[in-house]
Every structure is written in structure tokens, then in C-alpha cells.
Design brief:
Layout (H helix, E strand, L loop, with lengths): L6 E2 L3 E2 L5 E3 L2 E3 L4 E5 L6 E3 L2 E12 L5 E10 L5 E5 L1 H7 E3 L11 E2 L4 E9 L8 E9 L7 E4 L11 E3 L5 E7 L13 E3 L2 E3 L6 E5 L22 E3 L4 E7 L23 E7 L2 E6 L13 E2 L4 E4 L11 E6 L9 E2 L1 E11 L12 E11 L5 E5 L1
Length: about 375
Amino acid sequence: MNRSYFILLSFFILSLAKYSFGQQTITPGSLQIQLLQKPIPVTIDHKPTLVYEMHFTNTSSLNLEITGFSILNLANKDTLLNYDQTALNSRLQPIATRNNPGKGAIIQPAATHILYIEANTSRRKFPAIFHHVRFKAAGDSIHHLERNHDTLTLSSTQPTIFANPLKGGNWTAVYDPSWQRGHRRVVYEVKGRQRIPGRFAIDFIKIDSAHYAEGNEDSIQNWLGYAEEVLAVADGEVASVRDDFPESATLAAHPVYRSEQATGNYISLKLTTNRYVFYEHLKPGSIKVKPGQKIKKGEVIALLGFTGQTTGPHLHLHLADSNSPLGAEGLPFIFETFTLIGRYPDFSKFGKATFNKVRPEKIRHEMPPSNTVVIFE
């Protein structure tokens, strides 16, 4: 992993400067904390939202345990977000290595764990904020160290604005930051560097009032969104195309693909420098564009299909900072407009029960909330 891309955070001690546990001494430097990148605020559900990660590396010879993490308002010290022990156990995940079988909030010596953070505010924008971290030697029920970072610097970059990727509705915007194996938490290593390309990825699945298929859902032809037209979300240039994946007629016959084959047939569209849109799982033979071709917003570029690593026909959409479906960092995007008509507060009922209908609301310049049902014009 190339750590030159990290920003090392500077911390000072709030309480104990150090303490001994057994024959070992724990100091503030026993836990190295790094920020992957400056977060870009994005509006979700009318709230400015931050989606980012921090890396915690244990530099001591003992197992360390993170026992508390908070984000506070720098001006008045009000708590904007707090992860308790239960939340930390699910949000802290090790960077997988043969020598790091640990999990959750307990970090083994020389190991690094990622903390996945999603924070929002009811204000028009985020105030100046800082992190508060509490940790100890695992097994020690008495001593703790606490550290603060004075200010989190947010990126001044604005989220990229997309036009409609699909027509009409009802489209379920399928994603959830809490899913352990969801796009948000899958780290890919390409050429020795680890990245999260799907940090803001959305899977769009078409439904009626409750179902995503008419009749036997094992047949992909019965899925409501299958072979729907996929649209260019902005003017741009086609950067790359892959169209060599076959498509099985049924879910049961679909082969198991490796992670490097996850995309299936795909298109990447270059919008500007370091901004590439990825459309994945496209129908074989449906891609209508070629690399180097200039296309316009709203142009039909392919059809929704069932290729690659997927459990059903859908459109995978994400934005990244380079032309690599797995070897790039995922970036936030917002839509020019969409109409929100429903939600799935319990996603286990997706495809089995009617979604929770809400008063239709036309929304501009936001990202659809997790597992909501939207209509594109």
C-alpha cells in the first residue's frame, strides 16, 4: 500500500500521557491514525453528509482496542456523531493480510484497521469539526488514552452533477453503508495500492409496487429492468468499453466470477480530468459506443443486463478518479433531479412487500438516500 497518499493527522493528549500494562508501556504514539483523503460533502436526504475512512495502525507490541470515536463541533464541542463499542465493532475492519486475522475494534500489533465513517448535519453545511479517539490495551479495564485532532479539513471540491442514467421508474437506489460486503466497504488492491471504488456506488433495480420480476424471477427476461436503455449522465468521451462477457438466461445458471471480473460488460465515460463514470453489468452486444467517441448527455449508450458479479439484472453506477473500475477511488455525485416516491427501511422485504410510499417529492442536486424508490424524468 502506497502511504504517500495518506495525510498523517497530528494529535495531542487529553488525559494520560502514557501507562504501563504488564511489562509494556502504552503511549499516544502506540496508535497511528491516518486519513485516507479529504472528504467531499454530498447532500443526502437534504443533509450535508461526509463519507470517508480513517486508518488505525497499532505500533505497539500489545493488542489495542478502540473504545470510543466521536466527531465534535470545534466551536462549542457539541457531539455531532458518536460510535460506541457496538458500532466500532461493526465499522472497524482489518486490512486483510495473512498475519492479521483480527477483527472489529481490537487491533493486533503492526496491523491496520479501517474505520468507515458516515456523518451528517442538519445545518446548511458542516461546521469546523474534529475527531475524538479513545483506546486502551485490550484486556485492560482501567486505563485509557484519549486523543483529539484539532480540525478536519474538508475538500472544497463539489460533487459531480449527473443527469438521468435511466428513464422513468420505479427505480430502487440500492446501497447501504452499513452492509459488511456492500460496495462501500469492499477494498480492492490493484498494483499494490488499496482503494474503495464503490464508495458511493448505487445499484439501480426496477420494481413495480413490490416486485422486481413478473412471474418466475429465475428468468432474467422477467425482470422489470432487464434491457432498459442506459443513458449518458453528462457530455463526455468514452474512455473504455468491455463487451466480452456472456449472459446466462437464468439466475441459477449464472457462473461465479472472481472479484476482478465483477464489472461484467461495462462502459467508462470520461467527464473531466480525474472524473470517470462507470456503468456495469451491461447486456452483451448492447453497447452502442466505442472508446474515443464523444457523446452527449441523455444519449442511449447501452442496455441494462446481467453480466459479471451480480445476483440479478441491474445497473451499477459509480464515479471514480481514474479509468479503472477497481483501481480508483470512488467519488460522490448528485443528480440534477429525481422524484422520491418511497423507501425500504427494512431491505429484507425488497421484492417481497410493497415499499413504504411517501408523498412524491421532486429533489434537485442530491444523491438518493439509501434504499429509496425514485422516478427519473
